[in-house]
């Protein structure tokens, strides 16, 4: 709720090394994420009707935001929500998904390997900046999709709306210092640091 604050990372900047280097994490958090928060607060100063909303409510109500400010709220509100989610979905310690989670995934994607392949392929093929998601749809199904820029499945503009349970940042600022244009290599590395306990809890 307004005014929004930059959350602390739940681990040190170097905690995801070597998959993501400390310098990238620091710039990503203190630079990019902080800028989203600061700009969102600045825009909302002139929108008192939206200041009492949670961030999730704000993103779901973007079409009600005045046209003059809508793009900024969409970009910076989405950037704040997406990055807050991303920090929580990464784990310093490598985790194995539980048997229960593997069974749930297999029921909808065939098997764990197929699920991994589909999600990372979607992330690799996504053109330009954006995010790859696993969402829980209102019908209770799991679905993979991508969104451009800082859009997410909470917004009315997504190809499908639902509850994000896993998201992967494919903006170049998330990996370029270490991987340059090797997005596939970055994706394989961060896959080893997904917080599967968090994913399973979000699926419920």
Report on the structure:
- The protein is mainly alpha-helical.
- It folds into two domains: 21-89, Helix Hairpins (Orthogonal Bundle); 99-203, 3-Layer(bab) Sandwich (minor pseudopilin epsh fold), CATH 3.55.40.20.
- Helices cover 48% and strands 10% of the residues.
- The chain contains eight helices and three strands; from the N terminus they run αααααβββααα.
- It has helices at residues 22-44, 55-60, 67-89, 99-109, 112-125, 176-179, 183-191, 196-203, and strands at residues 130-136, 142-148, 163-169.
- It has a three-stranded antiparallel β-sheet with strand order 2-1-3.
- β1 (130-136) and β2 (142-148) form a beta hairpin.
- α1 (22-44) packs antiparallel against α3 (67-89).
- The radius of gyration is 17 Å and the shape is globular.
- The mean pLDDT is 98.
Task: Output the keywords.
204 residues; mainly alpha; Helix Hairpins; minor pseudopilin epsh fold; 2 domains; 3-stranded antiparallel sheet; 10% strand
Quick recap:
By secondary structure, the chain is mainly α. It has helices spanning 22-44, 55-60, 67-89, 99-109, 112-125, 176-179, 183-191, 196-203, and strands at 130-136, 142-148, 163-169. Strands 2-1-3 form a 3-stranded antiparallel β-sheet.
